[in-house]
Amino acid sequence: MSALAAWTGLAGRLPLTRHAATLTAPSLRAGLDRESAREVVPLLRRLLGAEGAVLGGRDGILAADRIECAHLLVLDAAVREAAQTGAVSRLPSRGVVVVPIRVQEAPAAALGAIGRHGSGALLRLMTEVAAMLAAQLELAELDRARRRAEQAELRFLEAQISPHFLYNTLGAAASFVSSDPGRAGEMLLSLADFLRYHAAGDGELVSLAEELRLVDAYLDLERARFGPRLAVDLHVAPGALGALLPALSVQPIVENAVRHGLEPAASGLLSITIAEQDGEAWVCVEDDGVGSEQLLMLDPPHSHERDRHHGVGLRNVDERLRATFGPDHGLRIETGPGRGTRVTIHVPVAAR
Q1: pLDDT at residue 158 in the model
Q2: At the fourth CATH level, which superfamily is domain 160-348?
Q3: pTM of the prediction?
Q4: Position with higher pLDDT, 202 vs 185
């Protein structure tokens, strides 16, 4: 049985440890370190009715409250042993008791105290308090694991680059090698900058101004393929440019408009409008291309393989925006066959 499960039973019959859980939970939310130990040790000492208390890990004491120097060495050694092996230490002549704190059933930390009235009753109470502390540390570890998983997912989503875009860009650059070597070189440099931006995203928030620089680099590459067949209309409210959003949130929307809206139509107009309203930056990407109701479903699970890739970039953007800002910050898509596509996102202007 884990400490979390054990604490569920203990809390029902121990008002004292329930009170301890209430007081110590905020400090231990991020785990046990020197700072959190310093915050909770005085609380634990008072709740235990002890003369002094210590809290530590496998490397010894992290924090102590009202412990004389003569006891520190003894307690430090006992804390190390309890955290490493799970051993309980009792020195009745000095009133010292040290108990392990088991996280996921393995010793990971230790609680020590000096009693006023003998070690037997103190040992029983400390064992119960240690179970409460272990439950809180298990919850903190679960929370850290959840955050690591979310960050790993964000990094995975951001790392995806459309092979279609890479093939087309490299093909266009190759076509310029003989006729316009300078233009071919510019395209390859723009592509290198584009790839560096993808590699550097790593789950970080970037400014909308940075995203627009990437969009400009992307459109520069696409203009090399389309020439005058691709018209771009850009309107930007300067006050919105400081808004923060996940890296690679706008460029995939623009790429989707070019690839699935304008390319099948052979030409068209791409409009990008950025406005500020009610403390949020609104980004609207619209094309007058072929449109598609498929996009409204953001990659439905039973669609054909070719169609399934149609919305992958938008789905990734939608997931990352929702994970960062909440479920009401996903994509808004308006489209239909023959009437183009409009995709809108909104993010807070102030840094989160």
Answers
A1: 55
A2: Histidine kinase-like ATPase, C-terminal domain (3.30.565.10)
A3: 0.53
A4: 185
Q: What pLDDT does 335 receive?
A: 87
Asked whether residue 134 carries a pLDDT value surpassing 50, the answer given is yes
- In the chain, % of residues over pLDDT 70: 79
CA separation for the pair 159, 153 (Å, rounded): 10
Tens of pLDDT, residue by residue over 25-57, are 788 888 899 999 999 999 999 888 899 999 999
State the DSSP string of 29-55: TT---HHHHHHHHHHHHHHHT-SEEEE
The DSSP annotation for 206-234 comes to EEHHHHHHHHHHHHHHHHHHHGGGEEEEE
R_g (Cα) of the chain, nearest Å: 30
Cα dihedral sign, 318-319-324-327: positive
Q: Where are the domains of the chain?
A: 3-148, 160-348
Instruction: Read off the tokens for 267.
Output: 């030409």
Q: How far, in Å, CA of 83 to CA of 96, rounded?
A: 16
State which fold the 3-148 domain adopts.
Beta-Lactamase (3.30.450)
**CA-CA-CA-CA dihedral for 30, 34, 35, 37, to nearest 10:** 80
Residues in contact with 339: Cβ distance below 8 Å, sequence separation at least 6, in sequence order: 291
* Lookup: tokens for 301: 């699970």
What is the β-pairing status of strands 230-236 and 268-277? parallel
Interatomic CA distance for residues 254 and 270, integer angstroms:
8
Q: Which of 104, 178, 89, 185 is nearest to 141 (CA)?
A: 104
Residue 96 in 3-state DSSP? strand
User: Of 103, 105, 101, 68, which is closest to residue 87 (Cα–Cα)?
Assistant: 101
